Amino acid sequence: MINMKAFFTTLLFSLSALAVYAEADLPHHAIPGGIVSITLDQSGATAPTVLFQNKSAMTIQNAQGEWIAVIGVPLDQSSPIELAVNDKKISLPINDFPYEEQHIEIKEKRKVNPQKNDMTRISHEYNQMTPVYKSFNDGLANNWNSMLKPVDGPYSSAFGLKRFFNDQARKPHSGIDIAAPEGAPIKAPADGTIALTGDFFFNGNSVFIDHGQGLISMMCHLSRIDVKEGDVIKQGDLIGAVGKTGRATGPHLHWTVSLNNARVNPKLLLKKDDQLK
Ligand SMILES: [Zn+2]
Description:
Blueprint: H1 15-23, E1 35-43, E2 50-52, E3 55-56, E4 58-61, E5 66-72, E6 81-85, E7 88-92, E8 101-104, H2 116-134, E9 155-157, E10 162-165, E11 168-169, E12 176-179, E13 185-187, E14 192-200, E15 204-212, E16 215-222, E17 224-225, E18 232-233, E19 238-241, E20 252-259, E21 262-264, H3 272-276
Parallel strand pairs: 8-10
Antiparallel strand pairs: 1-5, 2-3, 2-6, 4-5, 6-7, 9-12, 10-11, 12-20, 13-19, 14-15, 14-18, 15-16, 16-20, 17-19, 20-21
Bound molecules: zinc ion.
The site of zinc ion has 5 residues, from loops.
């Protein structure tokens, strides 16, 4: 493998240099599962080509006309983020973050150690979900970084927890949980298009919303789905009801936010008022 750094100029952006964009309400948290907003020293009407992991990444423009790349940091990212911007290489260091462990007891053992026929179903579902997460459609929801909390209720499980089901290590918690009674209304956190709905082995009844430019919401464990694929929805529209379908110990909404196929902390995109309550 060629050391690309030897061939391109590497620009290191410090956190302090980016603070101005945090003030302008752009997310910036340079940790695994975070989102970084990087000013590109490019302006003009045409967006620069920005590639992260060889795929298109979100670009937005600030009031001064400068282009900014907004990148979801994968939970397993331990090296600097590397972007190709119009063929120029840019690098941003990522800090460690000590996500805590969570141990959960699941009574239905099959939801922890699936049977052979379950594995067939799980891999079919993976093949349905992956293209949604990898999709990139132009046109970004205006409210992409001022999302609504989709259901009323306390946060019951944090993003990024290192998870153990029946003492067996599994993937980290890729979203946040909000506890609410069965049947409580779930609202669209931001404008978008319904990209996929279905009843999935682990996630239960689920709705995928495409907010544009690789930003996807997934709502899981629903008791009822009120939208269908292709529906164009507005922030606050009813999309379904809280339930406990799939691998869930009780009724709650699991909400995943994915940017450039990286699961990120949804709280980074919530309206400030909704982050704590
Ligand atoms: Zn969850």
